[in-house]
Amino acid sequence: MGVLVGRDDDMAFLLDAWSETRRGARSIVLLGGEAGIGRTELVATFTERVRADGVDAVVAQAVTVAGQRPCWTVVAALRRRLGLADDEVDPGAVLTGVGDLLSRLARSGPTVLVVEDLHLGDSSYTDLLDYLLAEPDRGSLLVVATYRTEVARRLPGLSTVLARLGAHRAVRPRELSPLTEPSVDELVRRSTRRDGGLSRRVWQRSCGNPAIALASIEAGDDELPVTLRALALDRLDALPDGARTVARALAVVGEPVPHGLLASMLDLGEPHLTAAVRAAVEGAVVTVDRDRYALVNGLLGEVLDGEVLPGERARLCVPLERRAAPPEHDEVLAACFAVAGRSDDDDATLAAHETLAGLLCGPLGRLDDGVALARRVLGELPEPRRSDPAALGLRAVLADALVRLGRWDEAASELDAPDVPTPRLLLVAARLVLGRGDLDAADERLAVVPGLAQTVGDTRFADDVVDLRARLALARGDRGTARRLVAQRLATGRGGAWVVAPVLCTGFRAEAGDPDPEALDRLVRRLDTLADRVDRGDPVLRSAAEAHLVLCRAEAGRAEGERRPEDWEHAAGLWWARGELPAVAYCSWRQGESMLDVGRRAAAVEVLREAERLAVSLGATGRIRGIRRTLERAGSPTTSAPDDPPLVPGIDTLTARETQVLAELSRGLTNRAIGRRLRISEKTVEVHVTHVLAKLGARSRLEASTVWHGAAACTSGPRIVPASLPRRPRGELTPGRP
């Protein structure tokens, strides 16, 4: 037998069924999975375990051969076991005959019958399963029947029978999932002494498929093995033309693709595109993750990418090149409506706004634009429509963006507004109270989400629950639970950089101080994989993901015991440019901590005081405590309490983003330059400047700048915004200089 790794739960499932059989039960296990997933290896290991209990399983493969009697492979296997002649089973009553033979075996004790590859046999094999379920009083019997999931889906008769059998109380259906990344790591270690670079390549190609992983390990750095190419082509050749076209487009992109972008790449028309995608999913070539499509593994991408013609590639890439410069809101909405074909549909309009706001606040990192859009749309909605699912989704996007921007009171108001709670709104509420340091309240909100999600049929946010539970465990000092939850979340393989990077950060934080070398190595390799994927991806998404990746690198260095203040300074600058002040406070704290560790005490105290003021203005209780502990270690007193009066009248009335705009304005930058530095539109900057002037009672930009510099003279910087945080990300040219 080969190497069996990562199948403990599946083996326990089979052994539990065997234990029931030994107690006198009769049951059937239906074991499905894609090609190469390891059904045969698992069943072989199981039969060895059964043999250790003194029972030899009867093993047969379902095969259809012209001229042979029904279930002939099962009959032949039973005859060999019992030493019977060929004519002892009546060809006209095969099912009864097989039942009699199994009963004869069962007289001596519990019996196991394995029928492999139902998808290759005729209907007599599933008829046999039906017969055995209808004749329960023939002794203790366990039947394990296996099949290939993607083939069964293409055979209507078999898929229908399997669904019907799976609903029977004596049948235990189970579909084998791909191995997790840690299991693939273990498989590589058991199979070879190569370094971690091979593990990363094996994972990227296999995505947890054991057969692909083992063949990739054997090939090492060589070209794609012929056996693997044949495995991929076997699956691809079964697809209709439209489904294969969809798969080629996904191979060209190389990352999950939203439905709208795929539609613009292929121009098939909505009905044909939907049918093609469905066929690709049913053929186990494409997987769906929320609203995006991706190939199920890297192997398919390698094979498909090689068959894309130059002209076809150029045509497919046109929409990707257009996406490199994000269009304005109305253009994006027009594209959404063109794809949906119903621009006059109010529901479609609201759903399109929800999607757009999610893109702006998510992968594009344009939170101010997303907040402005969400506020405008929600403000224009009539009262009865504010409880529509899309409206509640849009409110959740808005509240989440406000939490990330540090506008926590505004976020709380948005979360309190709806009468109908949703899983997504509860998750944002949990994130908010966790940021404020109320761990019990966060726990209470998270506890409600799974049940509510089940009730309303919305299970999209299970991953987010795991993410937040890991952060909550870490906040409580339970690093073991945090590690387990991070591994569980990463094992799903789902999400882009803006989703996965925060999980990696939590994982690195769990390792800081007392790292588990293997866990830390897996996190670092996963970060390398993520960075490679971002580098090969869309330029706009690459820019938006930069802050996440830089923060991950800083966290990785901290977990490895390195002290690099410049990494934290770089991260703080990037988050400052995005306007995400809670992240700025955290990075500034770690920057000061690193400075202290390398002996730069005076500079460390200055940065830590700035971080403390920012955390106080946010009301981030947990963060304040951590920063003050570091200040105490530096031998420095903490700054003023959060309820002290404003340092300069008007300054404390500004929002976080308005304060950032004022800081840049005070340097003499134009609206266009400010927008470029803060990654917001020039029009948005103009609105912020108007609000700043009104709140400060200033008649001009010069007067507003004077107020800012006056506040800076009162202390090391106005409350809300650190005074000496980097004003530009590393590598950005100073405006006006070459």
TrEMBL record:
InterPro entries associated with the record: AAA_16, P-loop_NTPase, Sig_transdc_resp-reg_C-effctor, Tscrpt_reg_LuxR_C, WH-like_DNA-bd_sf
Residue intervals of the HTH luxR-type domain: 647-712
Transmembrane segments: none
UniProt xrefs under PROSITE patterns: HTH_LUXR_1, HTH_LUXR_2
Keywords, sorted A to Z: ATP-binding, Nucleotide-binding
PANTHER family linked: TESTICULAR SOLUBLE ADENYLYL CYCLASE, TRANSCRIPTIONAL ACTIVATOR DOMAIN
Protein name: LuxR C-terminal-related transcriptional regulator
Organism of derivation: Actinomycetospora termitidis
